[in-house]
Amino acid sequence: MTAPLQDSDGPDDAIGGPKQVTVIGAGIAGLVTAYELERLGHHVQIIEGSDDIGGRIHTHRFSGAGGPGPFAEMGAMRIPAGHRLTMHYIAELGLQNQVREFRTLFSDDAAYLPSSAGYLRVREAHDTLVDEFATGLPSAHYRQDTLLFGAWLDASIRAIAPRQFYDGLHNDIGVELLNLVDDIDLTPYRCGTARNRIDLHALFADHPRVRASCPPRLERFLDDVLDETSSSIVRLKDGMDELPRRLASRIRGKISLGQEVTGIDVHDDTVTLTVRQGLRTVTRTCDYVVCTIPFTVLRTLRLTGFDQDKLDIVHETKYWPATKIAFHCREPFWEKDGISGGASFTGGHVRQTYYPPAEGDPALGAVLLASYTIGPDAEALARMDEAERDALVAKELSVMHPELRRPGMVLAVAGRDWGARRWSRGAATVRWGQEAALREAERRECARPQKGLFFAGEHCSSKPAWIEGAIESAIDAAHEIEWYEPRASRVFAASRLSRSDRSA
User: Fold this and answer.
1) Which UniProt keywords apply (predicted)?
2) Is 77 annotated among the ligand-binding residues?
3) Could you read off the pLDDT of 452-482 as tens digits, one per residue?
């Protein structure tokens, strides 16, 4: 099992002596790789193509009148409390005092979701959701609690999955699953102020047979549903970018920004990088390299010395795009509507709308994460120009929140399209719809080294799309480099053994 590495006593204590390692990418995977390798006594430098660290952890800070305004998380914004590696680094980096609850979808009874009857409050949606869910069943003999379970599971899938993906999953909440749940006392799992929702996370955790009875496609999607609707998710009070920045401050080696790698040549004992530095292009010969950039970016580089299987996985790994749009509002108007946090499922192009806590100076306004979309939904927004996109989001969202139409309510807008961003070309690797064995085979192939070239990033992990996955892969890469013996050393050892055999 992946675990943080133990400190060595110093550079000379590295196994086989200290190694010189170049890390490509200053996202969380690259920073953790460098941090762990230095703890083992190796010498590390990081080169990053963009002008900032953090990768897909990106906190956008609005400017306010007279000082810095509120911020919006345009990248990673939450951490399941069960992600032990991420929580370990938060503690190790002294960020425990910044850990706060993250309010998620349906966690606020006053939030909204769409139905055939229009937008409903979460606290009053149960009857409509149950009626709509029961209408599609071949039989209605189930207990009311069972129908409530099915209705909220269906609503959660609809809120999290891209629209095109939801259609198939909706039909997977079938008879076998409902029959199993019908035999369970669901009273302990009722939640919400009116106890008219079901705690899906707790139910599936307590009853693994229910999870096992799900059709394969639904079972593979459940992790995301349960993580995103869990009551045990956290955030960092001063912004998620505190994590990469605190890590970077602990790294002794140089972190060079604006260093775009355009080619990687793998040789028997070295790796040559072609690097664009402004108007200049230089080559660097490295002993060891860890590549942490997404494969969507890697496949645009000139790659030589890779075996064909590795090239295939680099070119075939699929990434979901994601688009986030945040409004800097004059005031947290949603609080007057009774919403204290969490998120609404908005439907349409907007999909999900989050209400971050307004913790700063009220005079500086508040942030509304107006729209969070993934997959084809994100692509639809990305095809629009900024003005058209922002106007569409405001128009759709103002049906639910008419306060947005008030003059001067929206002070500024920020957007981030991860699918079109040059340094990411996608938000995350999502392996929905794949069998477990295929997922693991792809993960292993993504992480498999090419001689002195190693790989890390969420695409190389068992938890793609999460910070936890990036950290897991970084620790694994540091382990591999620590124990790696270069070809020259192997040849020397083999020849020495051969001479010993001959003399014997």
Assistant:
1) Oxidoreductase
2) yes
3) 999 999 999 999 999 999 999 999 999 999 9
